[in-house]
Amino acid sequence: MHAFLSLFLSLSLFRAAYAATAEEWRGRSIYQIIVDRFALPQGSDTTQCNPGDQTFCGGTWNSIRENLDYVQNMGFTAIWISPVSQNYEGARTPYGDPYHGYWISDASKLNSRFGTSDDLKALSDELHKRGMYLMVDVVVNNVMGLQTDLNNLSSYMFKDPSQYHPYCPIQWGNTTSEQNCWLGDEKVPLPDVNTEDPGVISAYQAWIKELVQTYNIDGLRIDAAKHVQSEFWPKFCGAAGVFCIGEVFGDNIDEVSSYQGPLDSVLNYPMYGALTEAFSLPGQLNTSAITETMEIYKTKFKDPGLLGNFLENQDLPRWANMSVDPQSMYNAMAFNFMSDGIPIVYYGQEQGFHGAADPWNREPLWTSGYTNTTANQIITKLNTLRNFLVNQTSDSSKTDWLHSRAEVLTTDAHGLAIMKGDVVSILTNLGSPPANVSVAVYTPYSNSLMMTDILSCKQFVVGSNGTLSVEYSLGGQAKIIVPSTLLQNSGMCGAEIAAGSTPKGQLASGAPRSSTFSSSLILIAITFVGLLGSSLV
Length: 537
Ligand SMILES: *[C@@H]1O[C@H](CO)[C@@H](O)[C@H](O)[C@H]1NC(C)=O
Ligand SMILES: *[C@@H]1O[C@H](CO)[C@@H](O)[C@H](O)[C@H]1NC(C)=O
Ligand SMILES: *[C@@H]1O[C@H](CO)[C@@H](O)[C@H](O)[C@H]1NC(C)=O
Ligand SMILES: *[C@@H]1O[C@H](CO)[C@@H](O)[C@H](O)[C@H]1NC(C)=O
Ligand SMILES: *[C@@H]1O[C@H](CO)[C@@H](O)[C@H](O)[C@H]1NC(C)=O
Ligand SMILES: *[C@@H]1O[C@H](CO)[C@@H](O)[C@H](O)[C@H]1NC(C)=O
Ligand SMILES: *[C@@H]1O[C@H](CO)[C@@H](O)[C@H](O)[C@H]1NC(C)=O
Ligand SMILES: *[C@@H]1O[C@H](CO)[C@@H](O)[C@H](O)[C@H]1NC(C)=O
Hints:
Blueprint: H1 2-14, H2 22-25, E1 30-33, H3 35-38, H4 61-65, H5 68-73, E2 78-81, E3 85-87, E4 104-110, H6 117-129, E5 133-138, H7 147-150, H8 175-180, E6 183-184, E7 189-190, H9 198-214, E8 219-222, H10 232-240, E9 243-246, H11 253-258, E10 265-266, H12 269-279, H13 288-300, E11 308-309, H14 319-322, H15 326-338, E12 342-346, H16 374-391, E13 407-412, E14 415-420, E15 423-428, E16 438-442, E17 450-453, E18 459-461, E19 467-471, E20 479-483, H17 512-531
Parallel strand pairs: 1-2, 1-12, 2-5, 5-8, 8-9, 9-10, 11-12
Antiparallel strand pairs: 3-4, 6-7, 13-14, 14-15, 15-20, 16-19, 17-18, 17-20
Helix pairs in contact: 9-10, 12-13, 15-16
The structure holds 2-acetamido-2-deoxy-beta-D-glucopyranose (8 copies).
Residues 442, 465 line the site of one 2-acetamido-2-deoxy-beta-D-glucopyranose.
């Protein structure tokens, strides 16, 4: 009995292992972290990190664990951390030191810069205690090594020169070349591991299986996935036994989508490109880039609901570097959370960081003071609604929001409206200045239905012919509108929280009185405009 009890405890509580599948990741929401840059150990000097120096700033797995409240309070249910494997330890290169963790030497060893094996286990355990998942970034395609390192491979996982493809520069557009030639350049060569070699294949499979089991990893983000032949992935991910999402850089939707199949999913670069075309300010204001991409999804991607939706990452300029108007980012972000796919937010996006591409997009987060910014509050609301909708997926009496497909309701020069499940998202690229623009969206909802925008907690009433009308006299804010009754027990916009439930994240506690007040104002406004014979109603 005793033995049984402790076995039960160790299985269920102490090292809760999720080894999560694609289906289990579908409803998650991911916060992406560069380990070196997210948080410092207590007592560190916080003034010494300049991204331009391209060197270590001191973040660790422990300092992530100690600051998980910040992530969980925003409603995220998973983190993705930069690679954990041993990196090149030689002389400083023209591109600095491997503070980012992507310059692998020995994948099978942990990177002691970021902590010990116990520290990584403690991070994993703490995440699982909170009901969160751990995704780890892995680099399989290549190692990093200067010519002198390659003459002596003793500190590498693959010690035999035959386990690497011979050097050749990549000829872009030639698939074989992209897969077998070397990424990097003369300053920082990234020797290409021979992933066709049976010994390499089996060593990688044994390694990933053990890594996932030892640290109870729930999912993998695969670096440079398109630089490895696609036949490699099913067995690698099969050995890992967890969800795999790959980086297939570029907006060639045929190429990107061809990796969903070999891998469970891919990062949604095509939609990233479309979002920049539609929402960047100043920019092309091309909303059809989004609608066309959504249309192409239907035939190309096996499962758009698993795509990793993002606006920023460690390779791209921050959104705010390209588009300084904050409403531009909030609207694009709302799209990522309320359409098909798994939302991913890169650390610092919520703090309005605005660095250019590598290395300026790897700012230290501590300089922000982890402030509760407007972006932070919008993310919290989006996560809270999404988590609430996801949680209802198992309830057969409710709409299965998670498995429903986002559809376009309306597009115009100022933006678009989409609908996924019960949620209507009306998004715009008008930006912050007040605009004398109103938009009428035809929905399947019936006349007089009360609806709530979860971002402002304002109420809307559906007009004749299912019309939902919004105006932008306070600037181009995103609107996420749901039937008000749907928010029951969500804790959002003054709705009660179901007894006994503990919704994650910070709740958007709109005061009921003020939302009633604003709803009557809107009713008056709609009536008034209606009297004038406007097209609003
Ligand atoms: C290779 O490097 C290791 C240290 O990384 C060293 O101990 C060893 O002597 C070197 N071997 C040769 C042949 O230079
Ligand atoms: C493509 O790249 C491979 C590997 O470098 C090379 O052998 C082949 O000749 C290239 N094909 C073309 C059409 O250039
Ligand atoms: C908008 O994007 C679509 C889809 O990518 C493209 O076909 C179209 O040419 C673009 N329009 C403009 C004005 O750039
Ligand atoms: C973009 O980033 C660069 C380098 O970090 C910076 O100098 C520039 O001011 C940024 N632009 C904006 C609009 O933030
Ligand atoms: C952030 O600020 C909002 C609005 O004042 C508040 O509702 C929320 O609780 C705050 N969140 C945190 C984590 O302090
Ligand atoms: C707003 O636009 C309408 C229709 O285009 C126009 O009649 C009205 O005068 C405008 N109002 C203001 C304050 O610019
Ligand atoms: C009613 O809605 C449909 C789209 O659902 C639209 O095509 C039609 O023009 C609308 N009719 C009126 C009178 O607004
Ligand atoms: C999910 O919904 C169930 C039933 O309404 C509730 O008991 C549970 O607390 C909810 N979980 C979360 C994380 O909101």
